[in-house]
Amino acid sequence: MLGVPVAALLGTAAFAPLPFSIAQPGLTANVLGENKGTQVITIDGASVRKTSGQLRMTTIEATSPDTHVDLPDVVDSWFSTEQAVMPRDSVYPSGDSVKEIEQYNRAQMKESQDEATRAALRYLDRADEDIKVTLELADVGGPSAGLLFSSASSTS
Predict the structure, then answer these.
(1) Is the pLDDT of residue 112 over 50?
(2) How much is the pTM?
(3) In the chain, where do the E strands start and end?
(4) H or E segment at 49?
(5) What is the Cα–Cα distance from 23 to 64, expressed in whole angstroms?
(6) Residue 15 and residue 103: Cα distance in Å, rounded?
(7) Is-contact 45 131, C-beta < 8 A?
């Protein structure tokens, strides 16, 4: 008789939401050119050298904070060479709503871009009063976009 409760418990556990996020390769874009018809990086107020070739940016995308990840998802992803299973709290702040997480990510993105711009201008020994650097890559968010921003700004 012990088998029935154990089977019921395992059946329930298999489809219960788990506190994990699944990551996989995301988009790649040439940050020296255009993405979806829009110039990725624009610089106003400073001379810009013409570039050739590509500077590819790669991203990692994770399941959204409200995605229902269950045991079959975790097991499939665990054995996949294209996916990684991570604790949800290592990807998103714990206890926050999806809206709060989106606001947090936007604030982190802006802060990261601003700091990256300042670092690039310091490297170039330039003041930032009259120089505006813009990153247009709507599919990318989070603090890591600032690293891209810094790299691209200092090579311009």
Answers:
(1) yes
(2) 0.62
(3) 20-30, 34-35, 38-39, 41-44, 56-62, 84-87, 132-135
(4) none
(5) 10
(6) 30
(7) yes
